[in-house]
Write a structure and sequence with these properties.
Layout (H helix, E strand, L loop, with lengths): L1 E5 L3 H10 L6 E6 L1 H10 L1 E5 L3 E3 L5 E4 L12 E6 L6 H11 E9 L6 H9 L4 E6 L2 E6 L2 E6 L3 E4 L7 H14 L3 E4 L2 H22 L9 H20 L7 H14 L6 H7 L10 H11 L4 H17 L3
The structure holds ketopantoate (KPL).
Length: about 325
């Protein structure tokens, strides 16, 4: 089975390192920059939950600066888009070149809208909904730190492929230790992950703390209240969500499982990169306005993170 990983940041590197160890997976990893060059030249080191080295002969590493190798074009059974939300359109276009005529794609980006972008570029029949709650960060080029075990959920979207189409990938993700499950409600799956990210990411990023600090009562209460604002917007849009008690339980569970992780928004701010606030809390604010629901906590968090971007200047 041929699997491509596009956008090898922290999460992409984690999925690459773990999938490269699965015997029936022929892995293609398309990266860029110093980290991509490091992987292509010397391989990838994974530390944290496990300690292992993936040599550059165990996967085909290519570089965006060089372009797609012709041997990869039109040949992939599955493409995993693991870049930032802002890269989705570009990565979806690359996927359309890489996928075999019967191949499928999924995006593990945070936020709302990435599955829709993939469906627009690739056609609804080729795209699964997907989310990941694994925690990962990159201490240096060529190294990924697996900071907390989470789960990978693949799900069905209207008019999209079903569980049978996903099964070979679900099996490979299971063998890789990435704890996959299937959801018949892909839209609900993406929203549940968004609710976690709007609660965790801006607060951990602004406070400059590891996820586990948000388990302390004051920060937890701020995070959960932010989550509930988002849940009101989702329910107004007729998204199927569990009870508030269950959402609270999920928030505690992810904070505990990823307690030593630096969330992606904190990593983005520290590295002077654009954050995903526009597809997280800001998207909740805009959808809330359309639905007539006030979302003051999300509005404040979005304004504060955006102000930090502006201080950093264009990147
Ligand atoms: O998705 C994440 C992120 O950092 O963006 C979590 C699951 C919150 C892990 O930190």
């Amino acid at each position: 089975m041929r699997v491509a990983i596009l956008g090898s940041g922290s999460l992409g590197s984690l999925y690459a390192a773990l999938l490269s160890r699965v015997s029936n997976v022929d892995l293609f990893v398309h990266g860029r920059g110093l980290h991509g060059a490091h992987m292509a030249a010397e391989g990838l080191h994974i530390e944290g939950e496990i300690d292992a080295f993936v040599s550059n002969s165990e996967a085909f590493f290519s570089l965006d600066e060089v372009g797609l190798p012709p041997v990869a074009v039109g040949s992939m059974d599955y493409v995993l888009l693991t870049g930032k939300a802002g890269q989705t359109l570009e990565l979806a276009k690359l996927s359309s070149q890489l996928l075999s005529p019967t191949g499928f794609a999924l995006s593990l980006s945070n936020g709302l809208g990435h599955a829709e972008t993939c469906r627009h570029v690739l056609g609804p029949h080729r795209v699964f909904a997907a989310t990941s709650t694994h925690g990962a960060w990159r201490p240096s080029a060529g190294v990924v730190h697996w900071a907390g075990r989470g789960e990978t959920v693949l799900g069905a979207l209207p008019g999209g492929p079903g569980q049978d189409d996903a099964q070979p990938l679900l099996d490979a993700l299971e063998s890789a230790g990435l704890s996959p499950t299937w959801s018949s409600d892909g839209t609900g799956t993406v929203w549940r992950k968004v609710l976690l990210n709007i609660a965790i990411n801006p607060i951990a990023a602004l406070a400059g703390v590891e996820n586990g600090e948000l388990l302390k009562p004051d920060l937890f209460s701020a995070a959960f209240s932010t989550m509930l604002e988002g849940a009101s917007v989702a329910r107004q849009e007729r998204v199927n969500l569990p009870s508030d008690e269950h959402l609270e339980h999920q928030l505690r569970q992810v904070l505990t499982a990823t307690s030593s992780n630096l969330c992606s928004m904190l990593q983005d701010l520290r590295n002077g990169r654009m954050t995903e606030i526009s597809v997280l809390n800001q998207a909740i604010v805009e959808r809330g306005e359309r639905a007539g629901i006030a979302t003051p906590l999300n509005q404040m968090l979005s304004a504060m993170v955006t102000a930090l971007h502006q201080q950093q200047g264009p990147n």
